[in-house]
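@channel sequence for tomorrow's demo:
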Amino acid sequence: MKVFCCYTPAHEVLLNDYFIPSLPNDVSLTAFPLKEIQGNGDFLSKEFIQCINQKIDLIIDSLDQLEDTVIVWSDIDILCFKSFKLELESFIWGKNLDIAFQKEGFGKWDKEVNTGFIAMRSNDRVRNFYKRVREAMNANPDLNEQPVINQLLQEEDLDLNWAMLPNHFATRSLKWPPDPDLTLYHANATEGTGAIQQKIQQFEELQAYQPHQKVKVCVVSPEMIGPRRNSGIGTHTHHLVRHLTTFPDTAVTLLLTAEIAIGEADHWRKHFKETYGVDIVFLEHEPPMYPIVGWFNQWFNLRSQQVYQFLARNNHDIVYFQDLNGDGFVSHQARNTGLAFSKTVFTTMINGPARWAREGMKCFTENEVDESLLEFIESYPVSHTDIVSAPSNYAFEYIEHDAGWKMTSERRTCPYMLDIGSANERSTSNTTGQPHPRIVFFGRLETRKGIHLFLAALDLLAKENYFGQQVPEIIFIGNHSETPSGSSKEVIPEFFRQHLSSWTYTIHSEWDQPECIEYLSENRDSLVVLPSIAETLGYTAIECFALGIQTIGSNSGAFPEIFESPDHLFELNPRAIAAKIKDAYNGDLPLAKGRYRTEAAKEAWTALHEDCLKLLEQKKRSLPQQLAKRPLVSICIPYYNYGNYFPEQMLSLARQSYPNYEVIVINDGSTDPESIQVFEKFKARFGDQSRFRFFSQDNQGLSATRNRAAELAKGDLIVFCDADNISHYHMTEVLAEAIFSAEADCVTCHFDKFKTDAEGRRIQLDFYTPLGAAIEAGPYVDPFGDANFIIRKEVFQQLGGFRHVPFTASEDWEFLAELVLSGYKLEVVPRSLFQYREHESSNMRVTNFFDSRMRTLEPYLKRCPQPWMRALLLHSVGVWENRQRASREAAKRYKEVPKTSPEPWWKALYNRFRRATCL
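structure tokens (generated this afternoon):
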């Protein structure tokens, strides 16, 4: 929703100190400065009337620029206490209103409206109404708009559906003191001189009646103790959420992005609210961003879209994201391109992204392209968040040096919090010189945690008969997981059956974190072995330190940072592990201690949150970024035999909300008589307007035609559109604002794809949601966007435009790949801005697939300095395309199999291919 206002120099204190800080996050503000108007804003003064006159002109201009959307015109002597976007839109659309006003007050003002805060639809009835207001004010220059509007609303010939807003959209004259349940408060009813100071005094007095608004904090996490199984992220989230509730005037919400694994949603909602005072929301119960799943339908992309939808709807002040699975990806895209969250503080914690986990698991993935896309969306928030944190220096080093992620945000090392006491507060029942009765593997039963190394070390000790007749009990505490040899559920029993048949072992795989801690607390004479290949901190080690349990661990990851002595660390091989177990088993090794301190971790998180609060205050007091100047945007349209579709595109471009644009249409030698006639018709209709320019040429092809249109463009920004698509009314405005907000060179967007049936009815097919500059995935899929993009003209010229390759398609894929590989910045607006029409004569359907596909690889191939590199790239793309084709054929055959078919292998084949591809 757009909010408009105007202000004089004298009113800037109200704008900057009260109005802007109170505006909800889910609206955008356009503020018009009236710098030439002096004076102190006293009611009905000469300057006051001048301001009102300019305001009416600005309202009419804004209505002319927009097409049937709900907007707000507001005075700036207003404080907002709640988000009003959804309520106003529901009020307007639900009652089929054109306009809704504040109520002036009680008594003699009970039937009058106040014009300081108005919600309106930008349609012809409202335009005509304000033109009548303009005429009436011109006839009587001493009147302000409020009595004029009240008079017009009583006239019998009024063609306007209007109503008054509910009383919680309060004015001073409505009631003082106001009811506590306020949506907003308008400090009107000032008298005499000193109006601005009177309004400030009202705002200050209001604090005594209006409860202080809480800071709304949301923690977004895929894991949490309770609804999910054991994980370090879940334990961290548990303690972080509880810690945030200790801050005064703070309302905490937990958004759990993974499915509930234990219990029911209602139980957990009640538990978290009653136990911690926290609202827990389950993403699986939230609606999707788009009703139909389309291209780039990977679960992590869809999930990040859902997270964005939830956050945009609920207007949080501070959001804590985790890097794992990129839940914050689309939200950061939206903020970066100016769609939302201009006043929201984002912080992202590095826990260990998918690539790090995959390297620790020492395995290849089922779908390398999906993994590449996942790494991109995990890295994006880390590069665009306000504050990025990590539990250890090792985590930062891995992200920056091994993964190569860019981190331009402020960074903090904040160890995970843990609140089970300290080692000094607990004693160990193990006595020096006494063997440990049990050896415990503590952690998920997977390769990354070193389960195979631990088993191999036990095998060495068994062959050596080190324990003799007093073999300790072997305990496994952790969830089962997959290993290269299969599931740990089968691998561990099979290993003991073959190698350690006389040994006793127990697996506890169903325990959550509190149950694990309880067991270890009762068995503190154990020896815990942690042979992890990779750890960003090592919760298991910290928990053992706190409980006073003898612990040895690997010298990898963050363990060297948290173990106080290197004597308790071993190299990552079975012999070194076995040797260290020998050192520790008889109690000869001193008790392991850690550098981790609970209070220090709490202090680090407290400092981070306090900095978020400071940053939040700065954001609330800053004017949302607006284009100081609306640069000319040139919309370039190649036209060839699209007479059936062109009228819809032209009409959509004629009503764009952006005020400063031109449209360049080039007829590229159309041969269809009807299409030529349609072109000439629109040329005659719009050709006399300076905004529309029409040209004709001999047929040169799509790329050459786009290039010529760009040469003819007068604007510094160029938008390419296809003649058979339909642009949303705000497409140009959103793209123009995004390229400046993101400081990008080029911006693409989402779009929805449709076709029409024989009766001309539109059928929604799917949605295309490109991700952006995911370079590594670019040879295999197009993550960049469609040709319907905005680009700086100088950048387009530097890149040489679209390469002309006759009888091929995918020139947009090739061009955008070249753009990002050349170092230019590409961003994506995560919002559908146009409708893509699918039909049999589209360029993609009438060109050779192989030739088109080869041009998409050209930007990559020309950067391969050795012939074998080119061959390797072509081979990998060939494998990918053949796998895609096989998947499509399997899907087609599966659909053709009768539902009663006794052959379930079809379904298994289809599911296997589906997992291995992007379908």
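heads up for whoever presents: The radius of gyration is 33 Å.
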